[in-house]
Amino acid sequence: MAGSGNRMGIDMGMRCKQCNQPITSGNITESAFGVFCSEGCKDKYETFVQRAQQLESMRRPFSLSRTLKTFIGKVIVILILLIALGVLGTVMPDIPILSDIVRTVREALGI
Ligand SMILES: [Zn+2]
């Protein structure tokens, strides 16, 4: 008598998405993500999917805002340097080395 086969249930022709074991009518555990061989596998897979989604949703805006902040930071530093040079040239127009740079900068900025 093939008792173990009956106890295992009928092979459903599917495999657990978590551990890849064959699904039978005796161990089938269905969820929104698919079929699993046990509640444990279902929980593991759901936790994995949720964590992956969290990481995915956290990563994208974070890296974008960081790139943007770095870019804006550089632009602000350059602007401050240019404005400082322009102010310096206006306050002290007699510095010969500066005046050339200042003229170029002021022409570029339109001031
Ligand atoms: Zn499993």
Comma- or semicolon-separated keywords:
111 residues; 2 domains; two-stranded antiparallel sheet; 4 strands; disordered N terminus
> What is the N-to-C succession of helices and strands?
HEEEEHH
Bound molecules: zinc ion
Sheet-strand content, in percent, reads 5-15%
Q: Specify Rg, calculated over alpha carbons.
A: 34 Å
- Amount of helix: 55-70%
Topology readout:
Layout: H1 3-8, E1 11-15, E2 22-24, E3 29-31, E4 34-36, H2 39-91, H3 96-109
Helix pairs in contact: 2-3
Residues 16, 18-19, 21, 36-38, 41 line the site of zinc ion.
Description:
The structure is a single chain. The protein is of the alpha+beta class. It has two domains: 8-58, no CATH class; 64-109, no CATH class. The protein has helices at 3-8, 39-91, 96-109, and strands spanning 11-15, 22-24, 29-31, 34-36. A two-stranded antiparallel ribbon has the order 1-2. It has a two-stranded antiparallel sheet with strand order 3-4. A hairpin with a 2-residue loop joins strand 3 and strand 4 (34-36). Helix 2 (39-91) crosses helix 3 (96-109). The longest helix has 53 residues, at 39-91. The N and C termini lie far apart (98 Å). The relative contact order is 0.07. Residues 1-6 have low confidence and may be disordered. Bound molecules: zinc ion. Zinc ion binds next to loops.
What is shown here, in short?
With 111 residues, the protein is an alpha+beta fold. The protein has three helices and four strands; from the N terminus they run αββββαα.
